[in-house]
Amino acid sequence: MTTFKKYVLGILCTFFLIGIGSKESVSYAQACNLNAGGDQFYCLDLDEFNLVGNISAQVDTTSIQWTVVGSSSGMSILDPNVLSPTVVATAGNFPVGPHTFELSATCLNTGMLITDQVVITITPPASVATIFDMSNNIVGDSIDACRALQLIGSSPGSNETGVWSVVSQPNQHQFIQDGDTLNALNSGYGGCSEITYLYSISNGGCTTTDTVVVTHFLQDEANIINVGGIPVMNQDHISVCGDTVQVYGSLVDCSSLVSWQVTSNTPGVPTPNLGSQGSRSNVILFTQSGNYDLIYTVNSNGPCVGGSDTLNIDLCFADSITNTFVTNSVCEFPDSIPLQSDLDPSAIWTSTAGAIIINNGTANATAVITDTTRNFFQFLATETVNSCFDGIDSIQCLSMYRENWSRFGTFENDTDTLNIFCQSPGQFYRAQDYITNPTGFHGVNMVADSVPSAATQIIEGNSYYVSSNLSFDAEGRYIFTLSSNSACNDTMKWVVNVANIQMPSAGRDTVGVCITDIYPLEGSTPIDGLGNVNPAVDMTWTQVGGPAPVTFSGPTNQQDLDILSFPQVGTYFFEYAFARDEGCALADTIEITTIACDTVACPCFTTLNCCEYWDLFQTDNKKYNNEAILAEVNAYREKIAAKYKLKSTADVPCNVCDYPEEEIPVFVVDTCTSPVQLISTGDFTVSWSNNVGVNINPGYAIANEPLSIFVANADSSCVFSDSLYIQCCDDSELNPRIETFCTSCDPCEDPSVPLLVQVNSDQGPLSSSDYTFQWGGSFLGSGNGNSEQVYVNDTIWVKITDNETLCVSVDTFYYDCCNEILPPLDLSCEGTKEGHQLSWASVSNAQYYEVYITLNDKECCREGLPAQSLVPIQTTQSQLLVTDYDCFSWYVVAVCANGESSKASVKQCSCDIPCEGACDLAPKWSLDFVTVDCEYVFNGWNEGTNCPSQQYEWYFFDMNGNQLGPVQTGTTATYVGGSKKEEIEVCLLIYVEDANGDVICDEKYCSTETIFPCKTVGIGDDIFMEKQSVSNVLSVRHSPTPVSEELTFTFTKGASQETARLIIYNGNNEVILDKLISIESDYKLNVSALSPGLYFYQIVNADGQTEIQKILISR
Question: Which residues form the Secretion system C-terminal sorting domain (predicted)?
Fold first, then answer.
């Protein structure tokens, strides 16, 4: 007894589905193919039809032949040797049913006979289309309609479809089709319209139709459809707020008159006034709250009787007053501003950008300022009083930073420590009540004494306050002198120590998080301006919004935190903040939107053929007692018994191989149910696929032919696939397979040369006289029977049929060279006026390349813009022109034909774009000076010409290429030295943008700079250089260079005086040394006892000549 075998032939069935065809995107000069056209449906009363064929250039046109497959009774091909012959009926109408026509021809290059088939289906007449009214009366050619009309079309037969359409419509028309029923909706056009409706029944080939002309009057359909902007169609009662209410009735025409009436049902409340009559719209002027009846009446006209509609209205009279008031004239940042409405504690607030609102709709509504770059905010409240909208209130907030200065006295010092980001990026606001008595006050001057960056200017004021907007572009110490123009002429020193810290990042907003998921919150690390972690920063997570509080995994004062659960579906807001100094908080906010995540229970899919199900029923008649399946099993057994003249179905051996030419039913069932259930085609789509050229009814299998089954529901949450192969032939001794002729060569050396393959067996090559070969997949079509050609990395298959037994074997062949694919090498970029020309060396076996681009990569581009990874760009060439982006990093991956990818190439940066026109960029920089805090200050400039509005960016790298600190902008930049000598690479990038902000050209200049240790003593503006200063008769030389403990003064021998006075001042202008020294020989000054800081020395000779220099001590 032959055993039924079921194989999961995923790869095999994939190739069956591919069919015979050439490899995509590759063409061959020797291609030979033909096509018989697509399947068609025609009605049986057709006199004739044409077959349409197509052939390639390698087909012999003299060998073209059309034939009818099977019986040709009732039809004739007039000229079967042309590509598009005419087919005529030979006896009345064409015979009903599918008819197969075959196109065949011979290839010029190989002599091979090739064929293709097309199915022409002749359909019987369709059912007669007839239009009925709701009483099942035939409506005839025309009908009058006084209200919305409903028509019914006659029922279509099996495999037929009924369709409604509008033939003519003078105005806009809307209707709803529900199966065979038509609901004509008259809300979109005027009355008295004549509209022709058409109903048709079609079976794919034949069609019948019926039409009716409908005159729409509409007078019987009086409806109040809108009150105060609220749709009220088919409603009896509504609540309305307001004093002036616009109302609308249903549309009427044909000179029909309408009228409105409103009556008060509340004692003591008068009837309100109505606007003009005779129109479907009106205005009601209410004066008091109350209950009213609104009546809309349409008079009769023509064949219609007219009608009316009544609506009961509860009206709440609202005053519509808008209150505007201003509070919080000065807001401290960061700040929380209470939002309270005097009229409506539950008012809904909205805000301008830069703030979020928590506890909205409650008496505890609060606005939290999130954008410290803004200095004006407005919050609007939508208020409701007695369930009626009352108006909009607003709160306006003027914002600036307020510092209390003490009154200025001579040399009185005021010191502030400022975090750039805490005071809003690059800006610091200051307001000061200068004097309590303004008499004689004329203004205040603010003059910069010492600034690390060059963005501070003199600030003058003529009011009681000094309000200054100062830009701090770098960390360091800023010293200002403030003085008044009053009679007192008081002055003071103001010192601002500027620190820095990068803004925190709370991560990206997320949508679609399951409420049962554990969600990780991952905050950024607090990094200062030099790229170091700042341990003094406190990190805190706070929920600032959402439908309900979430549950955290632990304390919120940590960098990383988990949300253990979300209480319900909605959008949640979380703030991640850095706190460094009192009153300084830097924050970032993210949104997390949650969804309900219900688990879908899929059926336990199982594929069973008819005999398998019958065997299981014999062993377990309870679980496999499905009446519908058993009915089909019995029908199969009865068909076999009748066809083969068996005594009864009990004599039917349920063995497919006894009747291999018969189709056997196949069932997809759910075995998790008892009894098992057939998978419903209403809930699932079931697809059946057979080998090319095999025509088997869906839901059936046949011996020795593979069957593929795919099942999926509408959203693809439950998917199942299976393959069925009932083998009734034993070819184990034959063992046919595809093998290559190439036994000693390496096909991967040159993938462009095709391989010659043939069908072999254990007894040797199979001959075309004993076997028939059907090739499929990416074969080249240049073979002869049992041989073919194919490229490496492409798949080819062959179906082998024994001409005597008709048994079938299938084998596939694939020569894999993709495991040797290498990453692309020799990447290069050339900047052109068109863009960035990327190129690389081509890779053997690469089908195509994927180019991965990251915009604004901080390793290649200036900071300030967020990095963004693009979707990989595919190209079959070893080059790519990128035109839409200014700066990016890129790398390339080679992809083989089977989808296998190489390792990624090395990452490269985009190239400089040449400047257009006469613009010339030539970046240069120099080290200007070193400050008291060991800050190396660099100055940059452009030696080119004709480049207006160029912009500057500074980059610092160690000698391993690692970036040191953030990118700096402006013509100057600062680098802070360390405790040891080091070499760094300093790079200046200058670029020019157009009016749209796009970079049109850029150029970079880099050079190496030596940074000396900070534990030294230096003299003069050039701190670590030997200094020679000359002033008239006095010349002083300082040594050694640099100095650590002792400073030597050497005086010029030509000086006429013998002594001079040496005075040392500290940073507060206090004298710490005043001594008469001899200038006839060197004078040594020990500085080891001086504290680190900035000092000044002054040497005065007898003639009053003075030399003044700075001394820097930093240990």
Answer: 1040-1113
Tokens of 777: 């997949």
The dihedral formed by the CA atoms of 384, 386, 389 and 390, expressed in degrees to the nearest 10 = -80
Same domain, 610 and 717: yes
Give the C-alpha separation, 388 to 375, whole Å: 34
**Mean pLDDT, the chain, whole residue set:** 74
Write out the DSSP string of 903-959: PP---EEPPPPPPPTT----EEEEEEEE-TT-EEEEEEEE-SSS-TT-EEEEEEE-T
Q: Is residue 975 part of a domain?
A: no
Pair (804, 849) in one structural domain: no
Of 703, 726, 749, the one marking the end of a domain is 726
Q: How far apart are CA 305 and CA 295, in angstroms?
A: 17
Q: Is the peptide bond before 1013 cis (omega within 30 degrees of 0)?
A: no
pLDDT of residue 898: 73
Sheet holding 355-358, edge to edge: 336-338, 366-369, 355-358
- Domain check: are 244 and 312 in the same one? yes
- Does residue 964 lie in a domain region? no
pLDDT at 85 over 90: yes
Measured in degrees and rounded to the nearest 5, phi and psi for residue 639 equal: -65, -45
CB 374 within 8 A of CB 334: no
Q: Are residues 612 and 722 in the same domain?
A: yes
- Supply the range of the domain harboring residue 186: 131-216
Instruction: Indicate the number of domains in the chain.
Output: 10
3-state percent breakdown (helix, strand, coil) of the chain, nearest 5: 5, 45, 50
Query: At 350, which amino acid appears?
Result: T
Residues 349 and 431 in one domain: no
Residues 6+ apart with CB under 8 A from 888: 853, 854, 855, 856, 857, 860, 861, 882, 909, 910
Residue 941 exposed, middle or buried by CB count within 10 Å (0-12, 13-18, 19+): middle
CATH number of the domain at 800, please.
2.60.40
The 10s digit of each residue's pLDDT in 86-127 is 999 887 788 888 999 999 999 988 888 999 999 999 988 888
Are 891 and 905 in contact by the 8 Å Cβ rule? The answer is yes
Question: How far apart are alpha carbons 904 and 792 in whole angstroms?
Answer: 23
Task: State whether 753 and 853 are in the same domain.
Answer: no
With a CB cutoff of 8 Å and minimum separation 6, the contacts of 599 are none
If asked whether residues 630 and 647 sit together in one domain, one would say: yes
Q: Does a structural domain hold residue 990?
A: no
Higher pLDDT, 794 or 63: 63
| Nearest residue to 1001 via CA among 967, 950, 940 | 950
Asked if residue 858 is part of any domain, the answer here is yes
Estimate to the nearest angstrom the gap between the alpha carbon of 827 and the chain centroid.
29
Condensed to tens digits (0 to 9), the pLDDT of residues 593-628 reads 887 776 556 788 889 988 888 888 888 888 899 999
Helix, strand or coil, per DSSP, at residue 555: coil
Q: What is the C-alpha end-to-end distance of the chain, expressed in Å? A: 99
Q: In terms of Cα–Cα distance, which of 782, 996, 845, 1011 is closest to 31?
A: 782
Chosen domain end from 123, 148, 181: 123
Cβ atoms 321, 361 nearer than 8 A: no
Query: How many whole angstroms separate alpha carbon 314 and alpha carbon 296?
Result: 17
- Smallest CA-to-CA distance from 553 within 521, 592, 512 is with 521
- The structure tokens 């020309």 sit at 837
At 584 the three-state DSSP class reads coil
- 613 shares a domain with 712: yes
Contact 655, 2 (CB under 8 A): yes
Burial of 3 from C-beta contacts in 10 A (0-12 / 13-18 / 19+): exposed
d(Cα 1003, Cα 44) in Å, to the nearest integer?
78
**What's the rounded Cα separation, in Å, for the pair 1021 and 1036?**
15
CATH number, domain of 85, equals 2.60.40.10
